[in-house]
């Protein structure tokens, strides 16, 4: 337990131990409400956005639970598994298109990003044709360095777009989540279009940013270490592949700014007293490297039983889309390494551009080839260290 100084001069507690992180995220005295004094905002832009739009991620129970229950049925394990065939078809089509195009290619724009966008657009009922607009807005929203004005402008544009879309859904509903909410909640007067737009906002942004970045940086790790890629390729059944995905989630932990909380009352965590009104940066990525929870945690072990990792958070705010994300990742990683056994990085790892200025870690581009990589591709012995510690170059 230690104090850290943030961009605005505040000094919240940094919580890193696995058990301490689980304790805080499960404790109702640790509030996710960003309007409370002492809440440790990620940035000035992030603070401005949270003042403008309240999403269910920023709410405590019981208010948070009202929103979560509206969405729970759409994100069950059963419903997510029911989308596996569609996700597989999308991945197959994207790979076919990539292989028919120039070699080398950027795996981010060829597979990772369009896959995650297609999946969330299909679920929500957001037109895929509008992807350039909302991807641009989303990139600004998740940036930890964008100015307040840029973040607010992007947020307003996105909310206006989604509110208009919800109005259309109310008039001409289809078989998608936003249509259901527009008919059942807006039509019945239980929620406003602004409330539904806030739901759509968080699902659209988080639903594609996290999966796309996880696929990209996960493939960077696998391709830089051919032994790991071979292990995924030869996985003896879906259970082994699923286990490999859990270790990738633990090892990479792409949510890199921590879950933010503020104490509603005095609480003792790990033997340290946190006073009411003091902020907490709950570092799930660091907790996923706690040797008391994961022996030899700095080693990527594809056979490790890592399902108890905290990449999706913990407690009442456990990621509602985790089951769908797992299906996406299993299909993407498994299909890429099996269908293109010669897939390789086309540049040294230290030439990749890592996303330091985002709350979600990833790579800007991932140049790959399926013929012969150009000279200088990173050797497997150093690549894992470079990928995992790239953010220290910020």
TrEMBL record:
One of its GO terms (molecular function) is monooxygenase activity. Keywords: Heme, Iron, Metal-binding, Monooxygenase, Oxidoreductase. Gene3D superfamilies: Cytochrome P450 (1.10.630.10). CDD domains: CYP105-like. It holds the Pfam family p450. InterPro entries: Cyt_P450, Cyt_P450_B, Cyt_P450_CS, Cyt_P450_sf. It comes from the Bacteria. The keyword Disulfide bond does not apply. Pathway: Antibiotic biosynthesis; vancomycin biosynthesis. Involved in the coupling of aromatic side chains of the heptapeptide of vancomycin. Belongs to the cytochrome P450 family. PANTHER family: CYTOCHROME P450 YJIB-RELATED, P450, PUTATIVE (EUROFUNG)-RELATED. This is Cytochrome. It comes from Amycolatopsis orientalis. The lineage of its organism: Bacteria, Bacillati, Actinomycetota, Actinomycetes, Pseudonocardiales.
